[in-house]
Amino acid sequence: GVDWSTVVLAAIKKCSNNCSTVDLHKAMISACVDMATIAHLKMAAKLYIGDIYKRVFGDWRKIPSLKSKYKQMVKLGLWEDMGYADADLEYLNSKIDHYRDLDSTLPEVQQIIDKYAIRDKVAGVMYETPQFMYMRMAMGNMAKIESNDLRLMLVTQLYDAYSKKQINPPSPFSINLGTPKRHYASCCVFVSGDSADSLAAGDHIAYMMTCMSAG
């Protein structure tokens, strides 16, 4: 729904003669943002997702299966071993739809990548794309369901609700579900008395709850 050539010409003006393909890719995203329509922001998101896939997988054609991703993340200690058998992972792999990443605007995708998807911010290594994040959340949420058939059905329903943005989960769910972390409280309220000791205790509570992902 946008004029591709206009975006490319605007991007070229942002680049020097010796720019890399990475520079050109970023310039096209910037050109779309400058045009500031919903259609251009969706185009920017598609370009951004392409960049993310290159960084995480090397190429969009190299997206791993859920089973492969699950075992990699558990081995790294980034996902919890949630008790899903290989057959369960193969079934859920048939439900994950990476094309849904292309239905978002740039601010949506940037928020997921910058705030919620698992990555090593110090080393600059990214481990999750949005769809793997949504599936990790759904699997973590339903991990304790005893009936396997019911569990797989509920994981599929919850994954669809997350990835189609029918549910807006609180930040700690997005960050911690399916990981070894156990901090799911989104907000807390506490009262301090009017004394130095009580105010100090209140500061400590605020600090500890912030460390545990709560506001």
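(ticket continues) Second input and output from the same batch:
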Amino acid sequence: SDNTKTWSEMDRRAKRLQKGLPAPLPMWSPQGTYLITQHPGTIRLWGGKSMQATVELPAAELQFVQMSPSEKYLVVFGREFNFWDVQNARIIRSIPGHCGPVFKYNADDSMVACILPGKGALMVYDAATMKLMTQELPPKYTMQEDGLCSFAWSPTNPNIIAHVVSGDDSIGYRVTIENITDIGDNLVDLSPIA
């Protein structure tokens, strides 16, 4: 049938679509440096002039793969979220969770963020260490606001983030654009842009 064109080699061997990714790999990295393929229990990154396998990473029960815009980091979700340094093939951190948070990297791959569903909390991490960046201690989030439901990084300025807060029927949605400045020791300053 026509849907066999989207099956992976693992699906063909099993003679059925496997649980996991909605569309089987391969996929290209954002800048086209790597081709990412799925194999039993692993993913491979192919690159270089001769497109050789350059990195192989464990990926048990693979459900989701995402590479940062500058191709420094790879997020692999299977049993948990695993954040990898691509150049060193080194795991930075594992974060338990279900496939709820969607992690988004900023323009220069220095920060990655997600929203905790239903809590109105925006979590911004230093991408190189995956340490949470906060406004003040002891909060365990970078920003919290009732109704916070979405966000997007500027594609050109790595410190600019826009977030959306839902209101009631008369207010609708409010969008705030802020400048995030790293002030050291995993603390950040959030200042609205006029």
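Agent notes: Confidence is low (pLDDT under 50) at residues 1-5. Residues 133 and 184 are 9 Å apart (CA to CA). Closing as not reproducible unless the customer responds.
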